[in-house]
Design a protein that fits this description.
mainly alpha, 3 domains, two-stranded antiparallel sheet
């Protein structure tokens, strides 16, 4: 995680105009951990000057909201959820990733009971994080494993999602990474079981005791045996048994983790295909009955959102398209009464489509070169790089998604 001093140095060394550097320097003390680190990452990318101006304005909004939330300003809560709604209704992924920095800091404040949020508002933030789960920092993944595992399991394929984020971030290169994660399951105090509630940690410990005679066998068949033979499990309803089964599958995998690149990429492609199909279905539905996108069912993969009739935010691609030169003219400040109350300026979308595309291509390039230094593939499984047909399939899906986005403008 980037420190305050490191971010200051990044801003000092960047090519932003002096006025933007000054504005960014002023907001640094008002940012929290994730917005601070996010700003450092974005500035270090060396983006074009029009993008630099938009990033500066967006992070000033983040700082203003965070400052207001810490002071219990009800207007800050209103502004946060207004920006939240606008971001959710925007179809561009880069906008969502920028906002994720703010959502992480706000979630941490709300989790520490420093904010007057309702349980519904708090869960909305958690749902947003889950929709971008593969972009979460390691600390937040650990938070979910210890505190919000039941919600996470109800929304995603728990084991496969954990495999993907570990693979993407190379966490399996860290010594004893899996022990750190498995220990969090023992510490989880969420209650599972309506008839005879026990904490998730207690369930995992009972399975551990049940399997100890098998010398830590990491076999899913042993999980099935536990679910059939343990008397306490028989009191669970079928959905609760399924949840416990998924949690224990993750646990036994963490005891002896192995990673297969082909399986990880296949799972990601499968979700991408489902997202493309869902986006197309919602688009056709809007054409036929002029309705907005429907709320996804629990357990469905995160859907690509479709905007309502008129997007509230102006995409930054319009700024980039109108200014390809490196020259930048800062906006002239308008007159304002010194006694006028501070007013939250209109929140502008930061929507750098070209940036995100390049970022995705870089990630894919890194993923395709994966191989030699990682954990060995599962027994009987191949560990070779994906065939060209998989890459072509991914490109076709991306093109289909882009075509749908253009129709929705």
């Amino acid at each position: 995680m980037l420190s305050l001093e490191k971010v200051k140095q990044i801003i000092t060394d960047c090519q932003f105009p002096p006025d933007l550097k000054q504005r960014l320097g002023l907001i640094l003390p008002r940012l929290d951990k994730y917005t601070l680190a996010g700003l450092g990452r974005e500035v270090s990318r060396g983006d074009s000057l029009p993008v630099a101006a938009a990033l500066t304005e967006l992070w000033e909004n983040f700082a203003r909201i965070l400052d207001g939330l810490k002071k219990a300003d009800p207007n800050a809560i209103r502004d946060f959820f207004k920006l939240f709604a606008e971001t959710e209704n925007n179809q561009d992924e880069d906008q969502k990733l920028y906002f994720l920095n703010l959502a992480l800091d706000v979630r941490a404040l709300a989790g520490n009971s420093r904010l007057n949020f309702s349980s519904g508002q708090y869960q909305d933030i958690l749902e947003y994080e889950i929709s971008l789960f593969w972009n979460l920092p390691k600390e937040e993944v650990m938070f979910f494993l210890q505190n919000q595992l039941l919600l996470l399991e109800s929304r995603v394929n728990l084991l496969e999602h954990i495999k993907v984020i570990i693979w993407q971030n190379d966490w399996d290169y860290s010594r004893d990474f899996s022990r750190t994660f498995s220990d969090l399951l023992f510490k989880n105090n969420e209650k599972l079981g309506a008839a005879g509630p026990k904490s998730v940690g207690t369930w995992v410990k009972e399975y551990f005791d049940f399997s100890s005679t098998a010398a830590f066998r990491t076999d899913v068949m042993e999980v099935a045996e536990f679910l059939v033979k343990d008397p306490s499990v028989q009191k669970l309803a079928d959905p609760e048994k399924r949840t416990l089964s998924e949690i224990l599958k993750l646990y036994v995998w963490l005891l002896e983790p192995n990673m297969n690149e082909d399986e990880v990429l296949s799972y990601k492609e499968e979700l991408k295909e489902k997202q493309a199909a869902k986006a197309e279905q919602e688009f056709l539905s809007m054409l036929s009955d002029n309705r907005g996108p429907q709320t996804p069912a629990a357990g469905s993969p995160p859907a690509i959102p479709v905007p309502r009739n008129a997007p509230a935010l102006r995409p930054i691609r319009e700024i980039i398209a109108s200014s390809t030169s490196a020259a930048f003219m800062p906006p002239k400040p308008g007159p304002q009464s010194p006694n006028a109350p501070a007013v939250m300026p209109p929140l502008r979308a930061v929507n750098v489509q070209a940036l995100l595309k390049k970022r995705e291509e870089d990630s894919l390039q890194a993923g395709l070169s994966f191989g030699s230094g990682r954990m060995p593939p599962a027994p009987g499984q191949g560990g070779t790089a994906p065939q060209p047909s998989t890459a072509q399939k991914s490109a076709d899906i991306d093109k289909k998604l882009e075509d749908l986005k253009k129709k929705l403008k």
